[in-house]
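One example given next:
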Amino acid sequence: MTRTRSHISFVALLVILFLTFLDNTIISAVLTSVQSNLHAGVPQLQWVVGGYALTFAAFMLIFGSIGDILGRKKIMLVGVVIFILGAVVCAMSTDLKVLILGRLIMGLGAAASEPATLALISRIYGSRVTQSRAFGIWAAVSGLALAMGPILGGSLLSAWSWQSVFWFNVAFGSAALIAGFAFIPKDPARLKQRIDWLGFLAGGTALSLLIYATIQGETLGYRSGRITAIFCASILLGALFYLIEKRSKTPMITPSFFRIPSFSGSIFIAFASYFSIFAIFFFVALYLEIIQSVSALRLALDFTPLLLGIVISAVYSGKWMAREGSRIPLGAGCLIAAIGLFGTRHEMTPNVSFPILAVVLGISGIGFGLLVAPLNATAIWSLPQKDSGVAASSVNTGREFGAVAGVAILGSMVNGQLTNHLTARLIQLGIPASFRALVINAVTTGTFNQQAQAVTKGASLDVKTIIDKVVSAAYGALSHGLNLALTAAGILMLVASLVAVRLIPRGTLAHSRLAHSGGVENH
């Protein structure tokens, strides 16, 4: 393959990559619009966000394995088609359940198309130095897509409606499909190898049940018999998956891979990074929209420093990794991200100014941007080249499961504070129980501001005073929940920094891979 042809192929890969990563966060800009138009509560919004990541995470490994066997380009393009169909369902939805169904379909398509964007880099570029640079660019584009989500979503919402986000996906996805078909090279299939369907059924179902129980537990209660049973079923199926993979001649993923410190460490850091960054993309965006009532364009402006931090540091991290190895960029990135999260927690008040917000979000962006390239490279270079698809799928499964868990677990904290803290405050204010229920429902479904403004018109001074106190209580409850979520995310990134220092080897992985698929490293 000529150098020019390689570059064109790589750009086509990046277009598909941008498409799949963008939809992790583009929805955050239209959450309040969806909330008010479709009357969704916070748990329902979590499904709108987490539904995409659920199927993305649950099906990533099997599609990575199928791509390794049948051909990565073929599976990738099928995934783009599925993604486009899901976007059409979302764009035409007038019901919350249909919207969530469309997001699930989009996540399925992303799971099929995304693994090859990493795995094919080693086919397009033969030199490890060139691969390192390509991983850095891959990281910059994925970071750009994540950070561009709220900005692009806010711009589309301002110009049209929340449905325009999904029509954009249809148009951009069609362009990505054409570019991929025309320019991405075919790769050899291993048709004689059998697909591990039993492993897929056990592992995919275990992960899906785990994610479902994590999100639904907030609504039904984590101690309820139904949620406990689902968690237990997930654990049992996870154990069955391990036994199937251990005995299979053609496993979806070889269990011994997880005994490789660099591989398992990269998976954990991938989980932690997405768990934590969604505290910003989901909850900070929701806070700014509800508390500060920022416009869609203003939200786009607020997230611009985060975008710049991610993109600039992601480009630099590829060069840093090629020179020093993965350990230092990963450890530093986790630490800087933690500082940014703690800074955001400290400064996020109803009166936070744009310069202050720009600094703390910019620091967070720098930290998260430093992680992307070394995470991908570490995972892929830790395994044999024939398992590049599985390695890419594994690290991205960690990311997407982190996104789902972050939205679900942190959302449980926020929603719990929103109800418990607000209820306690309303009792202190002497608000009757019947009115407390109305206030909490209005806050959690996004209709609080409109109802408060309607009641205030023509009301007496005493009534206006009570309403002001109720508004203050509602905002205080949301702020308290956000603080807890950002604190938890910051602590997890500190733990991830320690994992990087302990499990990621010194020096660069770029000169070697595993000696064989059994998991023996050549370092």
Notes: Confidence is low (pLDDT under 50) at residues 508-523. The two ends are 30 Å apart (CA to CA). DSSP finds 19 helices and no strands in the chain.
